[in-house]
Structure formats: structure tokens, C-alpha cells
Amino acid sequence: MAQLGGIGHHHQTMDDPVETAAALARRVAALPDADMRVAYVRHELRRHPPELVVDIVAIAANLTESKIPPNQELLLAISLALADEVADDLRLAALGVAASRGQRDVVLLLSRRSIGDDDTPDDKLVPDFGRGRPLTLGERKSLARTRDRDLLMRVLRDPHPDVITILLGNPMLTEENIVRLAARRPIAPSILRLVFRSTRWIVRYRVRRVLCLNPNTPLDVSLALVRHLTDADRRLVYSSTELPDEIRRASEVRDPPLLH
After folding, report:
1. Mean pLDDT of the 17-29 span
2. Which of 84, 102, 177, 233 is the most exposed place for a label (fewest CB within 10 A)?
3. Do 110 and 180 form a contact (C-beta atoms < 8 A)?
4. 4 pairs with which residues across the strands?
């Protein structure tokens, strides 16, 4: 078997990474609900040692390029599974393994951008809610649950992750609202990561597309999504002068890999 993403030959054992990834892809494809897929993948990954997880991530990225339907969603499910804080220990351990092996593509997928001063909510960006005074964070979180669509448009501009977390679960929100939110510039990367982690919205193609095209999107998020775009949209990403080189390289349209 040809090497995949820096992975060499393995004996056919129950822990063979190619077989494990293929089985995981089949099971993910059989689950109808995005939350179920992510929970299942997280459970399975936490059963494996970090060395095997690194192999699975590398293979999943390669399988996505094959454009075979059962394999299409595996990388995204893995990225979402490892995005949850409960999987941080495994993600960090796998990150260390990937770094020691020199598997740069996997390192980028497993890394997280540190939240620094530029990602701190800016109170000056809090929208005017027409109350004649600045609203407290608690009041803004309460407004994130509103059913008033006009008010929702204001809440969408709130810079605080806690407000946006509540807002993303609001049943009155539409895909168009999320696309506008994810396209905003400038916007804190932490807000865009929240959009990515929302399984309700990340299954929508337009949301994935706009996240990949936003230069404020965290690198690991864009890398997890760009392989899921159409060839035409990948060319659009590749031609962008605003995006990091790593995203542009990952978006390059290639011939599907030959997998045996």
C-alpha cells in the first residue's frame, strides 16, 4: 500500500490505521445525525493511543481528497470531535506525536491558535440596543435568546463568545444569519471557532465555504473544512491573496489519491 500522509507500511492488525480509519469512515457515514457522528468518533478516538490517532487524522485528510462519499465526512467529524475540551488531553498528546514525527499537516490540523489580546472581546464593539446605556453581559446573553428577528440582527454583532454561544442555539436563527456572521471582518477568531463547533450550522455548505474564505478563521478550522469544498470554491480559496499560505496550499485541486 502506498504511504498516506507520512504513514508507512503497517502489519494488518486490529490496530492497523488504514483499516481503523476505513471502518470509522463507514460507521460515520451510516449515522444520520451530526451530533451522533461527532460523539461516536470522539468515543472511538479516546480508545486509541495518540500514535494511532495521528495516523487516523493523516489518513482521514487523504480520504477526503478521494471524494468517495463514505469517506467525505470523516476528517470533519474528527476535527469536531477533538475540538471539544473533553478531548484536549488526547489532542495535545497526538499533537506532540505529530510534531515529533515531523507530520506538519497533522500538526496544523491539531493545533489551536492561542487567544491573545487581539481575541479579547472589545466592549467598544458591543452593538447599541437602544436602551440609552450599555447593556451588561448578562442582559446581552438574555437577548441572545430573543425571538425578535430585528433584535437578533443586533445580537449577531456582539463580540462576546458567551453571547454568540447562546445565539447559535436560538431556533429563530437562519442559515443566512450565520453566513453573514461568519463572513464578518474583522471578527475575533474565537467567534468563528464557535460557528465551526456548532454541528447545527457546520453541516451547511455555505457556512463551511464562508469560513474558509474569511482570513480571521483559525488555521486548523479552515484546514478541516477546505477539503470539503467543491473544486470551484477550492480554486477561489487558492486564488485569494488574503488567506494564509497553508490554506491556499491545502485548497489546491489535485487528482484523487489512489487508495488500495
Report:
1. 93
2. 102
3. no
4. 7
